[in-house]
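Morning!

This is the sequence you dropped in the shared folder:
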Amino acid sequence: PWSLVEASAAGLPIVSTDRGAIGQNVIDGENGFLLENPEPKELAEKIAELIKDTDLREKMGKASRKLYESKFTAAAMSGQMREVFQTVLSETCVE
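The structure's back. Tokens below.
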């Protein structure tokens, strides 16, 4: 979801479920918590942990911003697309 990219851009730690492509935005224990089967109690515990632990919250927030800058800025995304196109074209073009 784009909201996770926006949270990363804002330098926020993320608590989310492990569904679809979310694992590309959230690295469990590094820039947030990725919950396999999110029970309300587990979700509340992770949020409370971030509220109570300023150092962890700031560390994860910085990691989110770093991940955003490396993967989700316009420059990073266009570079990744260029690589994909170059790979596809080099594999499919016949001389």
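Headline: Residues 74-92 form the longest helix (19 residues).

More detail when I'm at my desk.
O.
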